[in-house]
Design a protein that fits this description.
The complex is a heterotrimer of chains A (424), B (304) and C (282).
Chain A: H1 6-32, E1 35-38, E2 41-44, H2 48-69, H3 73-107, H4 116-141, H5 149-167, H6 171-193, H7 198-218, H8 220-223, E3 229-230, H9 250-253, H10 260-286, H11 289-299, H12 301-306, H13 311-337, E4 339-340, H14 347-360, H15 365-380, H16 386-403
Antiparallel strand pairs in A: 1-2, 3-4
Helix pairs in contact in A: 1-2, 4-10, 4-13, 4-14, 4-15, 5-6, 5-7, 5-13, 6-13, 10-11, 10-13, 11-13, 14-15, 14-16
Chain B: H1 2-32, H2 39-59, H3 65-92, H4 102-122, E1 127-128, E2 136-141, E3 146-150, H5 151-173, H6 175-185, H7 187-192, H8 197-223, E4 225-226, H9 230-245, H10 250-270, H11 276-290
Chain C: E1 3-14, E2 17-28, E3 32-36, H1 43-50, E4 58-64, E5 69-71, H2 77-84, E6 86-88, H3 101-107, H4 110-116, H5 121-124, H6 128-147, H7 163-176, E7 181-185, H8 193-210, E8 213-217, H9 221-227, E9 230-235, E10 238-243, H10 245-249, H11 252-259, H12 269-281
Parallel strand pairs in C: 3-8, 3-9, 6-7, 7-8
Antiparallel strand pairs in C: 1-2, 1-4, 4-5, 9-10
Helix pairs in contact in C: 3-7, 6-7, 8-9
The chains are: A mainly alpha (424), B mainly alpha (304), C alpha/beta (282).
């Protein structure tokens, strides 16, 4: 790198200094003067070292960023040229990752390291992949910002739990019914609100999510209120239960020794199948008129209307299908946990799913997978540091939007190609 | 009857607080057409700044109330305004003219960030503050129910009225207000006639944050407890107020705030307190469906 | 031959502003009808009323269908496109930027394809009847890609196209809806002379071969005067003249509206040349 001109350097130093100063102003009260709950009331215990570290960190970070931006122009243009093959090779890499990832997912339970803990994390990650794919239909394809997706997850979970508990129906009947209920509630909510413009829709769906949670919390007779519903029946393998008895159980039927891992592995394949179903249906829909209409609506609603596309109906299908998959994931959640309560269905949950969709790249199926593995799997290790995790999610959402507004892996392939002479 | 009047007083007080927050939503929406989801969290931060300020001044042995409140108010307005400015700079300005959903998602990210930032820095436990302003008038006493009007309630309502009036004058009479209205109408044209659009938008965020900080201080004094999560519900309710009044309209924000405050208070008093948040959300949904322009808003002509 | 479109007493007010004031005109099938007028004359508002985006304050908009007459002012915007089959383009180009050129043209055939896919259900199971219909839709798209000279860009994103290509793609997209009437809002804006000459022949082709009515808003007089069969002149929301290109060119009200009251004002060179030409021939 060539030497910077002193004039430039001065400006850079000044800019970084100002940014550091602003950080100081912001950090002094909130970070530097924490309020501590003590027996005699609140007291303040200053914590200047953290403030100094923060200010220094921001100053140096800004300085480095500035130096990066103010490189000699020849250098930066060569970087841009280098960047393009880099991106292309990344795309190439993705093509390999796809089948390898799928095979890996299929054989994961047979791996030597597949302990109970690993399988639990894997099930969790795949649940989020499914939720991410479901929400991707609504946000990524149809461009409808749904901040209350967790409501459909909750409706699926409660439908399953109530149907299974009250009517004693089997998992394979309750599962699709839970999906249908979630889908219907998606239509009922969507019908009045889908004509609203984007940001109003966002806040209405947020409100809807909260309404559902408050109702679940307060309707004791039906939902058990804050105590939730427990004793939800576990799924069976086509009628064979996962129990220690030898008669009519999975282990008995196949002549295996009973192991608690059987059920875990079954649950793993169950959610994998559900997630792959979601993916298959989404990929199919994308190539159908309805999928193209969703994307067209995301791009320009007025143009869609000028072409005779009914915007409300088209959005409604996206909303309902997304809700159905959310409901299916919810009933899986209920049967896996055996216990559900409103606590599992807060706004934070919606925000996490949205973060997965957004960070992976809106409309990108593989992006959702990568984001789930990194965000859920990666941060599962730091489960105790929940607030740091959400802090990072928030910062990432802002950062990605500023850097790449359509998400990290938002390179969209056309749903259809024709042979064209003389073009690549 | 006494009970009713008491609820009326409580509702107007709560409504004033919502109204002040709602102005921030309405102004930002008016000028850049987006919902600033992080505004509720700016309000939450301001309540923390006010709490810290009060604790420090108590610690320094200052107890003369007018000075105490004024000092904290001014300090909190400045610091909160700085937060508002920084949020706009980082999360919204780079996204102007970007993909439609980008600023919204960025705003949600910012909201999550601020909430967890304060939770980490200040702890997750609720922060109780002993009453600072106590006492009041007894308006009515029927034997079994007394109607109280506390000094604090008077301060809240009067301060809100003063700020609202001053603020309306600012918008209608000063150059800043004219620039703001010009940017609302047509940002490109405003830039062409020499208005510094970026600065005007920044100022809008700064003013919105400063007003939210007033609400933050009053919330702290009125309820005596805050935590890192108060911004979420207060934010949604204030936004509902802005929509109900007609988004983009300043008197509308105030009117909407009052109505939401009253509805919530009466709902809790006469129906069930558990569902009071549902009431606010339901109103939001109903207004958006049946009268999206709100009570005092201008109908929006779709630009084709 | 009866009129394809009859506009009777169309009036549109926004609050206190009257954008269109009692305008009546008719447009025929197999003709290009141009609406011209200075900026702010209300041309685009007429389009927005015709295509259902605005509900007119007063007036009747009749479109002659195969068997019945559609009252456009009563239909919702997407129904105008779907049932009355009025297609349009936009002044500030509204494509689906992140979708490919071909996809843009397939979205235009949405209703037809939706029916063929059995409202998605047949399509989801990959039935052959849908495949056949989709292949036909692609053929139609190819036809218009060919006519608009965009075949080479079929797989590229619409946003990657140069300006003139985007304008033509919007026309192709409108034609893919199989319209009875095509409304074009300044299709030649930003085109160079060669491109607007190509546009002229494209519009004439649409009129002569596809036998539909074309309604055209345009500022480029080389386009308007050459290809229009009938011209309507608006000024301040009122119709001030109509007739053949020649009639309109010599109309004193039109000249006043375009050039102002002051006769001494300097005229743009092409207008002076036009006027002199007319005098010489007329």
């Amino acid at each position: 790198m060539s030497v910077l001109k002193p004039k430039n350097l001065n400006a850079i130093l000044k800019d970084s200094f100002i940014i550091g100063l602003i950080t100081l102003v912001l950090a002094v009260p909130i970070v530097g003067l924490p309020t501590i709950n003590a027996t005699e009331g609140l007291k303040i215990e200053p914590r200047w070292s953290v403030v100094i570290l923060m200010v220094l960190g921001v100053f140096l970070g800004r300085l480095l960023l500035n130096l990066w931006w103010h490189r000699e122009p020849t250098l930066s243009s060569s970087i841009i040229i280098q960047n393009i093959p880099l991106l292309q090779s990344l795309q190439q890499l993705l093509k390999f990752i796809l089948p390898i990832g799928l095979i890996f997912a299929l054989i994961l339970p047979t791996m030597p390291f597949a302990s109970r803990y690993v399988m639990d994390v894997a099930i969790l990650v795949i649940t989020y992949i499914m939720l991410g794919w479901g929400l991707n239909i609504v946000v990524g394809l149809a461009g409808l910002l749904d901040l209350g997706y967790v409501a459909f997850y909750a409706i699926g979970a409660y439908s399953y739990a109530l149907l299974a508990n009250y009517f004693d129906w089997s998992f394979w009947i309750c599962l699709p019914m839970a999906g249908v209920f979630a889908g219907i509630s998606g239509i009922l909510l969507g019908f009045p609100v889908l004509r609203l413009r984007g940001d109003y829709l966002a806040i209405v769906t947020l409100g809807f999510g909260e309404i559902i949670r408050v109702i679940l919390l307060n309707w004791y007779e039906f939902t058990g209120g804050p105590d939730g519903i427990s004793g939800i029946p576990r799924p069976s393998f086509f009628g064979l239960e996962f129990k220690r008895n030898s008669e009519g159980t999975f282990s008995g039927f196949f002549g295996l020794d009973y192991s608690s891992m059987h059920r875990i592995i079954f649950l793993y394949y169950l959610i994998l199948a559900l997630a792959l179903l979601t993916n298959f249906v989404t990929l199919r829909l994308r190539k159908l008129p309805v999928g193209r209409a969703w994307e067209a609506l995301r791009e320009d609603e007025i143009a869609c209307r000028s072409l005779g596309i009914n915007p409300t109906n088209t959005k409604l299908t996206a909303f309902a299908i997304g809700a159905t998959f959310g409901g299916l994931a919810g009933s899986f959640f209920a049967t896996r946990q055996g216990f559900i309560s409103p606590e599992s269905f807060t706004f934070i949950e919606s925000a996490v799913i949205l973060a997965i969709v957004v960070l992976g790249g809106m409309g990108s199926q593989i992006g959702v997978v990568l984001a789930s593995v990194v965000l859920i799997g990666g941060t599962e290790l730091f489960r105790e540091l929940e607030e740091y995790r959400m802090l990072a999610f928030g910062a990432l959402m802002v950062g990605i939007m500023v850097w790449k507004p359509r998400g990290l892996l938002a390179n969209r392939e056309p749903t259809i190609r024709i042979k064209v002479e003389g073009s690549s | 009857m006494e009970y009713f009047i008491q609820q009326l007083i409580n509702g107007v007080t709560l409504g004033s607080i919502y109204g002040l927050i709602a102005i921030g939503y309405t102004m930002v929406y008016g000028i850049i057409g987006m919902i600033n989801f992080a505004h509720g969290d700016i309000f939450m931060i301001s309540a923390f700044i006010a709490l810290i300020g009060l604790l420090i001044l108590f610690g320094a042995g200052i107890s003369w109330l007018p000075f105490l409140l004024l000092a904290v108010l001014i300090l909190s307005m400045f610091l909160t305004a700085a937060w508002g400015w920084v949020v706009e700079r980082i999360a919204y300005r780079p996204l102007r003219g970007s993909f439609r959903l980008a600023p919204l998602i960025s705003a949600i990210g910012m909201s999550l960030f601020l909430q967890n930032f304060v939770q980490i820095a200040q702890g997750a436990r609720i922060k109780p503050l002993p009453p600072v302003v106590s006492g009041g008038f007894i308006l009515m006493d029927s034997g079994d129910f007394t109607v109280n009007l506390s000094y604090l309630q008077i301060v809240i309502v009067v301060l809100t009225l003063v700020l609202m009036t001053g603020f309306s004058l600012l918008i209608s009479k000063t150059a800043l207000g004219r620039q703001q209205r010009a940017c609302e109408q047509d940002r490109t044209m405003a830039a062409l006639v020499g208005i510094n659009v970026d600065r005007t938008i920044s100022l809008t965020f700064v003013i919105g944050a400063a007003l939210a900080s007033v609400a933050g201080l009053m919330f702290l004094l009125y309820y005596g407890v805050i935590d890192f999560f108060i911004g979420f519900l207060a934010g949604i309710k204030a936004f509902t107020a802005a929509v109900l009044g007609g988004i983009g309209s300043l008197p509308g924000a105030m009117l909407g705030g009052l109505l939401i405050g009253l509805i919530e208070t009466f709902w809790s008093a006469y129906f069930t307190i558990e569902y009071k948040d549902v009431a606010a959300f339901s109103i939001l949904v109903l207004v958006l469906i049946f009268r999206p322009t709100g009570l005092l808003g201008q109908p929006e002509i779709e630009k084709v | 031959m009866s009129d394809l479109l009859a506009v009777n007493h169309l009036t549109m007010r926004f609050g206190g502003l009257t954008a269109i004031d009692d305008v009546s005109f008719a447009a025929k099938n197999k003709e290009i009808t141009a609406i011209i007028g200075p900026n702010g004359a209300g041309k685009t508002t007429v389009f927005n009323c015709l295509t259902g985006f605005y509900k007119p304050t007063v007036g009747e908009l009749l479109l002659q269908g195969d068997s019945l007459t559609y009252r456009l002012e009563r239909l919702e915007d997407f129904v105008v496109a779907q049932k009355a089959r009025v297609a349009r383009t936009f002044q500030n180009i509204r494509l689906f930027p992140a979708m490919s050129v071909l996809e843009n043209l397939l979205v235009a055939q949405h209703n037809k394809l939706m029916l063929a896919s059995g409202w998605t259900i047949k399509g989801l199971f990959g039935l052959s009847s849908y495949k056949k219909e989709e292949a036909q839709a692609i053929e139609l798209a190819k036809y218009w890609l060919d006519k608009t000279n965009l075949m080479k860009r079929a797989n590229d994103n619409a946003s990657d196209l140069p300006y003139g290509d985007q304008r033509r793609l919007e026309i192709a997209r409108g034609m893919c809806t199989d319209p009875r009437m095509l409304c074009l809002d300044e299709p030649a804006a930003g085109m160079n002379p060669k491109e607007s000459a190509e546009l002229n022949s494209l519009l004439q082709f649409i009129r002569d071969e596809h036998k539909i009515g074309v309604l055209l808003i345009e500022h480029d007089m080389s386009v308007v005067m050459e290809i229009s069969d009938h011209i309507i002149v608006l000024d301040y929301g009122r119709k001030i003249a109509e007739g053949s290109p020649k009639q309109v060119r010599n109309d004193s009200a039109v000249i006043r509206a375009y050039l102002g009251e002051d006769e001494d004002e300097e005229l743009p060179p092409e207008v002076t040349a036009d006027l002199q030409n007319d005098k010489a021939h007329g």
